[in-house]
Amino acid sequence: MPQPTAGDGPAGAATTVLAADYFPSYSVVGLLAVLGVLFVAVAFGAGRLLRPVVPTPEKLLTYECGVDPVGEGWAHTQVRYYVYAFLYVVFAVDSIFLFPWATVFADPGYGATTLVEMFVFLGFLTVGLLYAYKKGVLSWT
């Protein structure tokens, strides 16, 4: 630790911090990283050494729910499933924004401002939902 001098700050306290003071903290993080990598490497190595390796034509087939594969591996998926997934993501993000808003809304001084902001946000989501409904995206056929 350096000795304080007259110009080092209030009451002669040293304001100089050496980088060497931080090395013990970094060494613990580095040691944990090395142990983690070593643990994974040992686990994979043990699995490779201990597993039985008996390749047969049946084991090399593509497995799908216990049913023998028939035909090609290409399957057509309808776009509407992706639209439902996208709508789910939109409303999940909506809930992520609603929870912090509910906690701030109760604080004094934030009521009117946060209420207006949240209704604007919910208005945009409502317009998007009405657009999806009008386009027929939400009808399941």
Structural class: mainly alpha
Strand content: under 5%
Q: Catalogue the unreliable spans.
A: none
Q: Biggest β-sheet, characterized? A: none
Shape: flat
Task: Give the distance, in angstroms, between the N- and C-terminal Cα atoms.
Answer: 75 Å
Helix content estimate: 55-70%
Helix segment tally: 3
User: Any idea what the radius of gyration is?
Assistant: 30 Å
Rounded mean pLDDT score: 78
- Total beta strand runs: 0
SSE topology string: HHH
Which features does this protein show?
141 residues, 3 helices, mainly alpha
Could you please describe the fold and organization of this structure?
It is a single chain. The chain is an all-alpha fold and 141 residues long. Helices cover 56% and strands 0% of the residues. The protein has 3 helices and no strands. It has helices spanning 23-50, 79-105, 111-134. Helix 2 (79-105) packs antiparallel against helix 3 (111-134). The model has no long low-confidence stretch (mean pLDDT 78).
